[in-house]
Amino acid sequence: MAASNDVDNLIKQFHLALGEFLKGNPEPVKKLFSHREDVTLANPYGPPVRGWEQVARVMEHASSLRRDGELLTVEIIGKYVTPELAYIVEIERLKAKVGGREDITPYNLRATMVFRPEGGVWRIMHRHADPITTAQPAESVIQK
Prior knowledge:
Shape: globular
Number of helices: 3
CATH topology: Nuclear Transport Factor 2, Chain: A
Number of strands: 6
Distance between the termini: 48 Å
Structural class: alpha+beta
Strand order of the largest sheet: 2-1-6-5-4-3
Number of domains: 1
Helix content: 25-40%
CATH architecture: Roll
């Protein structure tokens, strides 16, 4: 039960930190990630990256593209916790000024995060987020 409570606490911390991320401040999110060389991140802006230096750089870039944002709601699709590993799949509903736009735009991300304990503290070891939150036609996977 302790692992489940610890993971729930990490998820809660992440959601709070995501609010800062959406205001252009990646630091609270970065503190929750593993800083090991096997940490991975896949976001909508490019190919997946591996290793703390690359993950930190990609997070900083993604956060720099956001201003005046906030996390609106989270829909947890699934969660599983063991003493050694945990994951969550969720739909994040957010709003922010994105890129050079001056209007606050709502958008949704489907996100999967994998967690593990490191030195007695749970950390995010992988995150994948993308805007696919509704059914897509089969042809959508074909690259042009």
